Amino acid sequence: MKTIRFGIIGAGLMGREFASAAARWCHLKDMPTRPELVAVCDTNVALRAWYSEHFATVTQSTDDYRELLANPNVDAVYVALPHNLHQEVYCAAIDAGKHLMGEKPFGIDRAANESILAAARRNPKTFVRCSSEFPFYPAVQQIGRMIESGELGTIIEAETGFLHSSDMDPDKPVNWKRTIEANGEYGVMGDLGMHACHVPFRAGWQPKNVRAILSDIVPQRPDGQGGMAPCRTWDNATLLCETLDPVTQATFPWTLRTYRIAPGEKNTWYVRILGTRTSVRFSTKNPRRLDVLRYSPGDEQAWQQIDTGAETAYPVLTGGIFECGFTDIILQMWAAYCYELHHGKPISRFAGCVTPDEVAMSHALFTAALVSHKTTAAVEVRADD
Questions:
Q1: Is the pLDDT of residue 31 over 80?
Q2: In terms of domains, do 158 and 121 share one?
Q3: Which of 107, 201, 301, 372 has the fewest CB neighbours in a 10 Å radius?
Q4: Does residue 32 lie within any of the structural domains?
Q5: Contact, 258 vs 188, CB < 8 A?
Q6: Which long-range contacts (CB under 8 A, 24 or more apart) does 108-112 make?
């Protein structure tokens, strides 16, 4: 089994999720590669100490990402930093010859993203992907196979979204995601949007234009020092896109929702697709359940509820009758990254991590959405700007 030696830059929540997934690697069956955590970088000494305590393989702990990138024992890096640092650190990692898994949105804005993609083009032997885990739920993998086979027929309408309630409390102190300087003008779209775009973009669906409504629901929050600070990023975003399916050459409406303030939601990712032959819907509220409606002329229309189990893209030890959770799909995403790095392609079309081209399309969409909200008009999505 080939070992890929990883460094983590940004040792917070998602860095620890990756480390935990690496520790569970034996849970995967027949994997040709495995990650080994050898280096960690963060300005927070306490965070770095957690890695050193739990992973004897960590031989470098530093507060300077340049030191980590200069380490010849690091093959690949996972970078989980605020959006304003993406361009600098992602480009440095790629130019240092390190394979990269980066967090979305892969640059604070479109210009930053283009710089990162230029670095990837300069270094074609460097494997570059973006994090997005929710499509690795078994039910969504099944939806992907149905899209790929053409079973849905002509797409009538699609809706995808990511809704959660982490900012419901107006007294929650302001953090970097509430500032344009660190989070960017995309607001919630930059934070959550790639999750809602992953399946449509992998299907090849191309948004032609967008009408966006963006909401700043809590305009100020406690600053942690007894005062109040402005919140200048969008809390919620609703996008309606006229979208082209290149397989049928038909256009259809695609609604994309990303909410940080969603009453009744904890952390819900969902997809709903209506087709002329088959319709599907899935939500992480019921992570085992896939709803399917197959239509034949003259028959009654009825939704069928299918229980999915641990029928994952990358086989695991867990028996097929058991359900998958968030830590399981994190493991699947990292299996996808390592598998494609080793083989040059994912195990199947919908079992791959977000590509640089897909990230570029998200920036084209979110940039157009900002203009649409400002002008209250539908705006063309130009992927080639």
A1: yes
A2: no
A3: 301
A4: yes
A5: yes
A6: 108/83, 108/84, 108/183, 108/184, 108/186, 108/190, 109/184, 109/185, 109/186, 109/363, 109/367, 110/363, 110/364, 110/367, 110/385, 112/86, 112/87
Residues 82 and 179 in one domain: no
**Measured between alpha carbons, how far apart are the two ends of the chain, in Å?**
43
CA 192 to chain centre: 7
Residues ≥6 apart with Cβ < 8 Å to 318: 27, 310, 328
The model's pLDDT over 112-164, given as tens digits with 9 standing for 90+, comes to: 999 999 999 999 999 999 999 999 999 999 999 999 999 999 999 999 999 99
pLDDT (tens digit per residue) in 99-114 = 999 999 999 999 999 9
Q: Within 10 A of 355 (CB to CB), how many other CB atoms are there?
A: 16
Residues 68 and 215 in one domain: no
- Strands 289-294 and 33-41, by their bridges, are unpaired
Tokens (6 digits) for 271: 């997809």
Sign of CA dihedral 13, 15, 17, 19: negative
Helix (H, G, I), strand (E, B) or coil at 105: coil
The answer to whether the CB of 268 falls within 8 A of the CB of 285 is yes
- Provide the token pair at 254: 């695609």
> How far is Cα 218 from Cα 337, in angstroms, rounded to an integer?
37
Q: What is the pTM of this model?
A: 0.96
Torsion of CA 145, 153, 358, 259, to 10 degrees: -90
H/E segment holding residue 40: strand 33-41
